Amino acid sequence: MVLGVLTLLIVPAASGEEMAGPLWSIAVGGGVTSTAVTTDGSLTVAGTRDAGSVRIFDENGTEVWNYPTGCPVYQVSISGDGRFVAAASDKVRLFDRNGQIISNFDTGFFAYSTALSADGNYLAAGYDDSTIALYTAGGQEFWTAELDDDAVSLSLSSDGSYLAAGSKDERLYFFDNRGVPLWSYETGKTVMGVSVSPEGEYVAAGSLDKVIYFLDQEGVLLWRYIVGERVFDVSVSAGGKYVAAAAGTGLLLLDREGNLVWRYDAGNTVQGAAITPDGRRIALGVGSGAPAVHFLEGADVPDLAEGSESPDAWSLRAASDPYLMRAFIMADTGEVPTIAHDFDGVSIAGIVREEADPATPVTVRLTVGPEWTAAHGGQEGVVIVAARPDSLDSVPSLVETIPTSFVGYDPEGRLVFEGRSPYALTAYGIIAASEKEEGRTPGGGLVPLITGDGIFRLPLPQTPPRSASGG
Questions:
Q1: What is the mean pLDDT of residues 169-193?
Q2: Which residues form a coiled coil (predicted)?
Q3: In sequence order, what DSSP letters do the residues of 34-102 get, joined into one string?
């Protein structure tokens, strides 16, 4: 499906202020082609052309490590916590946080693009035979797809649910994590930069046609911003709140409505832009003249009042739960199931055991939003999965389904499901079942468990069943 719906056209206005100088700036040998940054902005990675290198800097601009590739690096990516770094060059190299190579993804063709999911579980690669592929960080190939030309930019949502690809064939492509092409959007020239918002709700693209495009998850164009200069890279913060774009010799920061917030002039052609999910920090790569990495303040995000929570905090909070999985495969089939994610309202509501013995199997309660539940067969289509304890350190984890029952609603209206695990404490998730799972049983008589993070996870009170559309 090719989409080309224009709902709003925004032309640059003079209202955007000129941004002050960077927090730090580091000269590098060879033009910077791409930048990436960790969730908290503590690490920045840059790829360079000419002889080629992958370079990592800390929050003060001090170089942490430098890996020479011997040929140009076209795109770099880093996991949210900095555990993994990926670089596309003669092949895709996956590094650990210390610069040691973990894996090589080599098809015999040059790699023009790569992307890591923020959770570090998925890696995407685009090669110069017009193919793109999705792998686990451990090297297992999930799927490949062929485009009409080479993909020169890739971006994954934080949990790997969605992949965006920008191609020389002048199109922006959007796939799910099973390789199903959901839509494509045609621009006027090569799509040099793409970015999926962390939760997968928005997609930005920058093209050599000198335009920035901003679309929703369904492929509907929300706005486009005519820059008047070639756009080499874009990056979207959580919730689509901000879009950073490297265009011409400057960095542009736009808000969710396509208004210019500010512009920073680097004096030379810029080719890499990466913004943190909260919009507070931006890493910019200068590709010519005086090649450098500039690290700038992003949006002036106000501090939250005590006890309040930002609109984007849900997914960040959920992702911090060590017992909630966001990427896994079925142990019996090796397939990737239909997974409910953080932005679908999934969270750990309680982990309890019936006896004091730590080796005793537990009962777990998870929440999921009513919209996701209704879209995947209702209450009977929701199944909890538990990770096999011996696979917790593997990528991805192996899971199996456990008997699941619906037990009520939490205060936010999310549905609460309970599952009895055959294991002691492990990690858990929710999937959609194609058929009704047998053996669902209600919980009861459970003893609260203090988990490893020191938090009491108490059973929720059961509430009368109601339909997903109920008030």
A1: 94
A2: none
A3: EEEE-TTSSEEEEEETTTTEEEEEETTS-EEEEEE-SS---EEEE-TTSSEEEEESSSEEEEETTS-EE
